[in-house]
């Protein structure tokens, strides 16, 4: 049961707290790509600005879209506090109107895995291709499904403390395979206030995207070339890598 949320931080504020010290090195990876692109950049699912604000800090001509209006509001608030002008809007990455041709489109933090069906995945690639300038790139990352980890943690709650306003909240999440044929899993989250009541909860489904499926999708897409790398430092795909960036060039 979810209690009254009025005296507690919003999901977007708690998200910021959880990832403000995130050890992932994807932020510098995407920032450097955007700077090197030297032109217009679009970030899909820009959220509260974990990647987007560093792009703006670096002087990148960046635009962002997201379906979550609460996270977009938080991004704008954070941008204003830093003296930045954030050009972000509510839109679906599977169905958006490009406002210009982009030299680079980014989709960080496994977000492409929200496109769960083959039709949605093909739509995403076609949509992004149409938004790119000639020679532009689409760069995204996915995590590599480790079956050892899946077997060990499937359905088990994982929790972490989150500090906000001098109070300690508890964030819990669990993942479980819900469709082994379609290779989909569900992520459930809940946030518990210091007094023990749940103040936020959510659930969503993701599709596993192993390298072979990404390759098949890329070959079927309008892109002229593509590559899959191991981690954010480049190199050939490593079976032990937890994240694989993919690049497609129009």
UniProtKB/TrEMBL annotation:
Superkingdom, natural source: Archaea
Keywords: Methyltransferase, S-adenosyl-L-methionine, Transferase
GO molecular function ontology, one term from the record: methyltransferase activity
Chaperone keyword on record: no
Keyword Flavoprotein: no
Domain Methyltransferase: 41-136
Listed CDD domains: AdoMet_MTases
Region spans: Disordered: 227-250
Listed GO biological process terms: methylation
PANTHER family according to UniProt: METHYLTRANSFERASE, UBIQUINONE BIOSYNTHESIS O-METHYLTRANSFERASE, MITOCHONDRIAL
Name of protein: Methyltransferase domain-containing protein
